[in-house]
Amino acid sequence: MGKSAKGDVALYRPRPHQARLHDSLKRFNVLVAHRRFGKTVFCINELIARAADMKRPDPRYAYVAPLLGQAKDVAWEYLKRYTMPIKGATRHETELRVDLPNGARLRLYGADNPDRLRGLYLDGVVLDEYAQMSPRLWPEVIRPALADRQGWAVFIGTPMGRNQFWELYRQASEDPEWHAALFRASETGILPTAELAGARRAMSEEQYAQEFECSFTAAVTGAYYGRLLEAAEARGRVGAVPWQPGVAVTTAWDLGIGDSTAIWFCQQVSNEVRLIDYYEASGVGLEHYVETLRAKPYDYGDHILPHDAEVRELGSGKSRVETLRALGVAPRVLRADKVDDGINAARLMLPRCRFDAGACARGLDTLRHYRREWDERLKVFRPRPLHDWASHGADAFRYLAMGLQAEDPGWRRAIAYDDRWVV
């Protein structure tokens, strides 16, 4: 892995856990760390030390946060501060970039715009708070960028349920070529016992378990469907749910424009809604999704689309409904409803759902991480969902619930509570 960051950069005095980490890193690393561990300082100094020591021409290094604004707020001051002792280093505020005298370049990026990273080569990259990023970022964008330079990567953050960060940590724990480590606040001794006790009193059980004890099983804070999905897993409703021939398959779509399009596939058997499949892609036309449907063995019933699918596009003058009909798909378009009504419909439907864990893995991740937007200034949740990578699958699920509810108005009289039905 090259020269350790430990002690190489003036002003940086790593804590014992950080120092051991610098010395034990491999090419690929997954580090699960509690809040206030000092992970951003650790990562920035690892990047600087590697970049300053690199001898090959034009080295390139990246620090990636879930949002570009977040990268600037969290890491930019650290990057400037810890490169100050390096003579000849130049800083570019508008590009969030530091150039070193040996030609190395360190730059901050946001995972909300992965196209900025496409086509680049990288000698090393840090993905901070990877649990909040799209699962497609690593295999589709970052890993190819490391290939020709045999670059390294560090994934670090706190858990947000069993999503791609959990899966990567699990895989790294079993692969001798990867380094995996987990740091709980109760074990590191970095934070005083009294401080942890105060945090526990101020936070919910789930929040404390996730943020300080690095629990992957705690429900995502602010998640709309977290407890209902936990109940579904506990009751065995997430597992093998095979397609049943002879029963019509209903699809529900969230149609992205220059964004991801998500499709859920379900069958209704008795009182159950069986989610048998999920598909998501981006950067392709409606023809691609129609071909995907035809490639599957299903007999289709309704294809449920949101109300804005009837809006005519400026380029073609046609709506997406018209385009789908021309391709042989006859959709059913929902009326316009409030997002809150759709979320409530999805909550009502979830106790009736069974999910195929394999075919719906990506869709389940979107549902687990669909959450309210957080107001950092006021320290409260805003009354609206956060729009991120999880929105597409969660929106499609919401449309499915609204579409099925329209067929069964009795749902409106029901309230789902802790996986029980009260009418």
Task: Give the structure's gist in a few sentences.
With about 425 residues, this protein is of the alpha/beta class. Helix content is about 35%, strand content about 25%.
Essential attributes:
single chain, 423 residues, alpha/beta, Rossmann fold, Nucleotidyltransferase, domain 5, 2 domains, 14 helices, 35% helix, disordered N terminus
Number of helices, where a helix is a run of at least 4 consecutive DSSP H or I residues: 14
Q: What characteristic shape results from the CA principal axes?
A: globular
Q: How much of the polypeptide forms β-strand, as a percent range?
A: 15-25%
Question: Low-confidence segments, ≥5 residues, pLDDT <50?
Answer: 1-9, 412-423
The radius of gyration over CA amounts to 24 Å
CATH topology of the largest domain: Nucleotidyltransferase, domain 5
Determine the structural class based on helices, strands and strand pairing.
alpha/beta
Number of domains in the coordinates? 2
- Highest CATH level, the class of the largest domain: Alpha Beta
Distance between the termini: 61 Å
User: Which architecture of the largest domain does the CATH hierarchy give at level 2?
Assistant: 2-Layer Sandwich
Strand count, sense and barrel status of the largest sheet are:
8 strands, mixed
Mean pLDDT across the residues is 88
